[in-house]
Design brief:
By secondary structure, the protein is mostly helical.
Length: 416
Amino acid sequence: MDKMTNTTTVYTEKKEERYIILFLTGLALYCIGYLLRRIGEETDIIRQPLQYLGFLILIIAAYKSISFRKNHYSTYIQYSMYALLLWHIYTILHNFSITSESLMTYFQPYFFFHLFVPLIVFFPTDKLVHYFIRWGLICIPFFFIFGILFIVPLFKNQSFTEQFVWVLGTTPAFLYLISPYLRNKNILYAGIITALSVLIPTIMARRNLMLTYGNFFILGTLILSISKLKHHIQEKMIGILFLCISCFALYAFFSSGDLGIFQKIYDRISVNNREELFISFIEDMSQKDWIIGKGIDGTYYAPGIDGQEFDSVEDKDDRFLIECGYLQVILKGGEVNLILLLNIFISAIYLGLFKSKNKFCKIAGFVILLWLIDMFPWGMPALDFRYLLVWICSAICINKNIRNFSEEQITKYFAL
């Protein structure tokens, strides 16, 4: 009987692992397809089959991976998650309509399916984290391969730059954060990718990416300095001093007159190009809209404001997106949605930072905290690896088993 039980358990675990791998593969295909769309319509012959195939795979794999019974969350967290998901269903049904235009819009990362990303907390968390980390290693060579193949749009097309870094730079940046559990060569590769994920957006004047990956690089370097340089306190101090000197050098460089390839970001660094947008948003929102939102099809009237680069809603006065994560959450689901989201994220941060026995959960808590900062300049909920990382870190922090793992157990489960 025990042998049969063990065989069944092994079979179940292998099946779970297979669906997790399929889920991440499907999401990768979907995101790469969307990345190619940023180049132009000439890529549609490749992009569309890739994106739709990836979407189909990830939906099937997600359905097979979800279990509302097998988790290790407190009752409070479980009911909080159910409340959030129910409100997301209400957000979808509220003012929902299907037209040929809106149907195609829903397949884009920012409009519809991001509402289901929180469901990944009901995946087998340990297996999801295990393979998500390994996906980070796969991204490293692809970062360089895609960077070489598409070097022209990478440094000419800001929209492509954003998607490139989000798709191929996010998981390596997370690897850099968890450097205490990585081999030295993997730390080096992850650090290089993270540094490039700061440098490339700096050249292309993408301020939100600079903030996100700059925070990842600074926090990762601090963690590396404190945890890896164990032998002498002097070495730790040298590492931290090096980081401080680097930050000061960057400040001095941008304060100088001759910036070369960094002139574009210098010219944009103090430009306020969103004030008019925010004013239009506030003027168009009623008191009811602020509380419950406008639903999945919700828009706001912003005449004469362009720069929105999202396929079928491009250059319209009625805009689907506002470039601030907090306001975007309110636009669709109101302050109720924002409160439910913050309830989960803040709870996860608290549990990860203060109720865990390992550095892994504390790092996950910091990732969520950085996301809450990112939501001011951008931080848009989306069906992509960046938003997935936030919810994976939330799943890590609210999982009692993982919080109680020793450093040795974390290393056994997740180390590279």
